[in-house]
Amino acid sequence: MLYNKKMKKQKLRHVLWSRKQEFFSRLLICILTAALIFVLNYNVKSIMRVKNMYDYDIYLNGLYDLKEEKGLAALKEINNDLFAYIEIEDLDIHLPIVKTESNAGEDYYLSHDFKNDANELGTPYQKHTTMLGETTNTVFIGHSSFTENLFNLKKNTSIFGALNKYLIYNPNYNYTISVETLNNKYIFKVMGVILFNVNRENTEQLKIYNTININSQASFDNFYGLVQKHSIVGCLETATYGDRFLTLFTCNSNLENRVMVIAKQVA
Fold first, then answer.
1. Contact at 8 Å (CB) between 50 and 156?
2. Nearest-CA neighbor of 59 among 119, 114, 120, 141?
3. CA-to-CA distance for 236 and 221, rounded, in angstroms?
């Protein structure tokens, strides 16, 4: 009798152990399957983002070649909203800038490329409340795109993404920005580079972004003082009242942060 009870207990323990092993085996298979799906999905999306950036950059290179061969007027024929063309040799940035008249126009170019095709990479545009050559501080806004393959940690950038390289001072850079319009060419030297959290309202950094016309010594002192205070690479250029500025505004790889590059017109 005692022997039978002992055998039953051993058999029960064996059954419970087998079920536990089966449960954990199934759980492990589920976890591995989910991980595999995640990895495959991540990489498919990453590959698609890379392809989109690749196609976009090929098109931008074609626009650059067309501009070099036939001038900005040829780009104007493709998109009548063309306003300027920006080049930053330090960062290999060569981009058309469009001009809009309203917030709606800006929203449009956040999701459409220079061909007016729907594209999440968008097109850099001049903030509609500013005007190069007229307002004291002109603002150009553009997306940054970053792609990173799970098996290859090399990060690629597109649009204004390379502006993030200015967050670290590089003595090999000349920090020069060239902006060409149909009628003029402007040269700027980078004065400051600012990184800030866009979710914090009414910050001093946003006051720089929102400064359009500097019409007094006091307003200049406030603007210039904020640039000096918040530039994470120091103030690279001195400025005086009467100078004009260009602010480039884009995303950081941390999507809660934004990057502003403030440059002073020198020619």
1. yes
2. 114
3. 17
CA distances, 140 to each of 121, 144, 193, 235 (Å): 15, 13, 14, 20
SS3 call for 267:
coil
C-beta neighbour count of 207 within 10 angstroms: 13
User: Which pLDDT score is estimated for 97?
Assistant: 98
Copy the structure tokens of residue 218: 């006091």
Predicted TM-score (pTM) of the model is 0.80
Between CA 103 and CA 245 the distance in angstroms is 22
Residues 231, 124 contacting (CB under 8 angstroms): no
Rg, Å, the chain Cα set = 27
Nearest CA to 226 out of 260, 189, 180 is that of 260
Joined tokens for residue 246: 């260009």
Q: How far apart are CA 138 and CA 212, in angstroms?
A: 7
What are the tens digits of pLDDT across the range 210-246?
Answer: 999 999 999 999 999 999 999 999 999 999 999 999 9
Rounded to whole angstroms, the Cα distance separating 140 from 99 reads: 10
d(CA 62, CA 49): 20
What is the bridge-based pairing of β-strands 125-126 and 137-141? antiparallel
Residue 207 tokens, joined: 């006051």
Alpha-carbon dihedral 82, 158, 71, 89, rounded to 10 degrees: 130
For the stretch 54-104, pLDDT in tens is: 788 888 899 999 999 999 999 999 999 999 999 999 999 999 999 999 999
> CA–CA separation, 65 vs 96, rounded Å?
12
162: closest CA among 257, 89, 56? 89
Task: Name which residue leads in pLDDT, 8 or 107.
Answer: 107
